[in-house]
Amino acid sequence: MVLLTIVRKCLISDQGLVPYTVAWEQQRSLVSQRLQDSSLDDILLLLEHPPVYTLGKGSSIDFLKFDPNQVNLEVHRIERGGEVTYHCPGQLVGYPILNLRYYRQDLHWYLRQLEEVLIQVLAVYGLKGERVAGMTGVWLEGCKVAAIGIKVKRWITMHGFALNVCPDLAGFNHIVPCGIADKPVGSLAQFIADLSVEQVRLDLCAKFAEVFGVQLINQGEREFC
């Protein structure tokens, strides 16, 4: 008797540059839909944000090096875990909306899977991404190049990861990124010249599909990768 393995499908939505609040509301809507109907496909949102700072639900305001009431900088406290981080163009952001009941109901497993996707993406370019014990994210030669912060409700995920491909890192100078004062933030472009978000996006899609064992499909189109 031959058992057939059904590969789970995951829609992919490549959105370009999207204001943070728009993507945030979209995630909430997608999660709400899946809480009502668990048969809906998973979806991976890939995008970039205009400059914005976000703080996790328990993040300390002390990690901001400015008074948000005194400067014209966009800041949001959101429901993910983790401390403060910065988003801007040149950073590839991924928001997987997954039903972990179809994978593994284990948040530590899920975080390690996201790290593995990013580590494998770096390996495509001959870069050795690393984990740091007791922390979440991916480091490259001592610099944090990818941050991860998630929210899971009844095993439906939201928020996700941010990979610094070729951003202007100056915005990180205004915070203590992820609450880690002794480890600098870096980008892939510091190691590989002329690297684009579009190029990395394609490699990330392939690795996401491989690590999570899914078939990625463009919304409204045929098989993507």
TrEMBL record:
GO molecular function, one term: lipoyl(octanoyl) transferase activity
Residue numbers marked as site, Lowers pKa of active site Cys: K144
EC nos: 2.3.1.181
Pathway: Protein modification; protein lipoylation via endogenous pathway; protein N(6)-(lipoyl)lysine from octanoyl-[acyl-carrier-protein]: step 1/2
Annotated catalysed reactions: octanoyl-[ACP] + L-lysyl-[protein] = N(6)-octanoyl-L-lysyl-[protein] + holo-[ACP] + H(+)
Cellular compartments annotated: Cytoplasm
Other remarks in the entry: In the reaction, the free carboxyl group of octanoic acid is attached via an amide linkage to the epsilon-amino group of a specific lysine residue of lipoyl domains of lipoate-dependent enzymes.
Family affiliation: Belongs to the LipB family.
Role noted for this protein: Catalyzes the transfer of endogenously produced octanoic acid from octanoyl-acyl-carrier-protein onto the lipoyl domains of lipoate-dependent enzymes. Lipoyl-ACP can also act as a substrate although octanoyl-ACP is likely to be the physiological substrate.
Descriptive protein name: Octanoyltransferase
